[in-house]
Amino acid sequence: MATSWRSTHVEQVPAADRPIPPSGPLDLREVRFPTRAESVLPEVLAALQARTPEAPCAVFTDGTTWSYAETAARTWGLAHRLAEVTGLARGEYLASCLPNGPEAILSWTATCALGAVYAPLNTAYRTPQLHHALELTRASVLVVHADLAERLAQLDPVTLPHLRHVVLVGGTAPEVPLPWPVSSWTEVATVNGAARPVLDPPLEPWDECAVLMTSGTTGASKAVRRTYAQYDRYTESSFRMVGVGAADRFHVCAPLFHGGADTPVYSMIQLGASFLVDTGFSVSRFWDTVRRHGCTVAWLHSAMSLFLHKQPERPDDADNPLRLALLAPLFPGYQDFARRFGISVYMVYGMTEMSCVFTVLDPTEVGSLGAPADPGYHARIVDEHDVEVPPGTPGELVVRHDLPWVITPGYLHDAAATARVWRNGWFHTGDVFVRTAAGDHRLVDRVKDAIRRRGEFVSAAEVERELLDLPEVTEAAVIGVAAEMEEEVLAYLAVRPGSDAPDIHRRLVQRLSYFAVPRYLVVRDTLPRNVALRVDKPSLRGLGVPADAWDAVAAGVQPTRERFGPA
């Protein structure tokens, strides 16, 4: 058996000899509120700096490894420089728009060290989405990659009065002038032996750690407030419960502005484990990367796992250090996938707004989530009046927890949206579930207007807004259509005479994140409407992809994920 993947940092055993964690709760801490030392990121990092200074913390694909001592030293140094250069202070918001890399990790840890709040933004944001996010978070400082400076230059500083400083990563000066003071990353990231910043009073578990932008499935994107206690509960319900511990290394390939990546990073630090920061997901190099860096745990959304499963089989498929894969959601061939690569799989149900309600190790059926795995969670299936429905009847899943602060306190600067999800003492997920007589919870559907494409949730409302902002578009309806790997985005349009689909698509590329740009455009004289005069999306979904749909992939003009730095 080849042993090239064995890591000097992570003790490994061959796949066949690996102990398989038992199903069900494993070392889930009793339901009690966490202490500051257990849950607050700067406290945890400082403790590990003292207790296990040489243990690996952050690993990068270029071979660089930061120990806990180095990670902490870099964090404290950056925190002091951010305070000196940008004036970032406790309670303020630092937004970042960065690809995966050391800068994204340190921007977060240093922000927390100052008692400020971290707001990571999607690097695919165009100027309108970037403006909305900066306005909503009222960010004082923005750390942004130099390749995105042109989008920033189009912003009006008068409409962003809170933003006072920009830190540019990957360059010393923007090619286009920016209307804010600009510093380079090298100016603020110097390791200078600084001590950890002293906060008085200290941070507490109920304090805000980060805000994450939603995908805007029911309107404009919202900023989800996440406390340190919420991150702590993610660690318990998503990782400690399935046996992840200090000997593990998590492969992070999702963007760090997603909950599927920032949560594992936080949790690995809490567990004293390590994590590999990959620049992105690649079918061709995934297993080589896992072997080279000794990764033992990974998160793979369904398209990733399907891509890997569709690759030609190799005799050494199971010769890898990975022992656990979080598949979200499961795909029908997940059991064959697990056997082929010699791993255990598990699935979870949670949201940006809350830690995982359901955690299932080695699931036996797609869609079956069982009962809440976290003993602190209570779940009900209710009708539109919040009245519980009988078993077998679809309804909305609502939840609450015995502990405070482990579900989001709400949406930043959006009291109306907060009131809509927090009703009658329960958090409303917006997802349709059915509970069987035996107590098994089954997910029926996500929020109706959410489209899942390549691991991203696309907001139909956001795409429709951009379409309707074009003068030639009079009506628009955006839906998801089935594709081999999740869904594709299709837009039905009613347009003025003389308009054409390729021109509309070209302008959408300039206005939307790459993953939100529709692949298909269908032009009609008018769109069907129901008795309430709303566009009849159910009937449109039933049509699939019409034969006369214009296809951007076939035309060779569909945008793809952007790459940063030198070609």
From TrEMBL:
Listed GO biological process terms: long-chain fatty acid import into cell
A GO cellular-component term linked to this record: plasma membrane
One example GO MF annotation: ATP binding
Domain AMP-binding enzyme C-terminal: 462-530
Gene3D superfamilies given in the database record: 3.30.300.30, N-terminal domain of ligase-like
SUPFAM superfamilies, alphabetized: Acetyl-CoA synthetase-like
Coiled coil (UniProt feature): none
Residue ranges of domain AMP-dependent synthetase/ligase in the record: 50-412
Region span, Disordered: 1-25
Alphabetized UniProt keyword annotations: ATP-binding, Ligase, Nucleotide-binding
Pfam families in the cross-refs: AMP-binding, AMP-binding_C
InterPro entries: AMP-bd_C (IPR025110), AMP-bd_C_sf (IPR045851), AMP-binding_CS (IPR020845), AMP-dep_synth/lig_dom (IPR000873), ANL_N_sf (IPR042099)
Protein family according to the UniProt entry: Belongs to the ATP-dependent AMP-binding enzyme family.
PANTHER family: FATTY ACID TRANSPORT PROTEIN 3, ISOFORM A, LONG-CHAIN FATTY ACID TRANSPORT PROTEIN
Protein name in the entry: AMP-binding protein
Organism lineage: Bacteria, Bacillati, Actinomycetota, Actinomycetes, Nakamurellales
